[in-house]
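Sample intake sheet
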Amino acid sequence: MKFRSSYLNDNSRNYIKSLMSSVNPSQTWGISAGSNQYYIKNGWLALSSPWPWYVDSIGFIPGANNDGYTIAVYTDNNIPMSVGVNMIESLARATKSIGVE
């Protein structure tokens, strides 16, 4: 089953997909873990010392027959940032391995 929303037309969807499939290689961590094809946007922010990081990753993992799944993971209070990244990637791999679609 393919979900279609009337909020975006095909041109808008294709533009978003082009942006989310061409991120800087240093920013391909996150929900992309365990997948060869993905559309991704990551975010990270530390507001004050000792810099507990807010780390998030959102995107779409395509599947067979032009379907797939959307995944979004938001974390906070990560010291250092890599704690949040590792948690997100663990969740992404677990989601991929159980075939959530």
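Comment: The longest strand covers residues 68-78. The mean pLDDT is 87.
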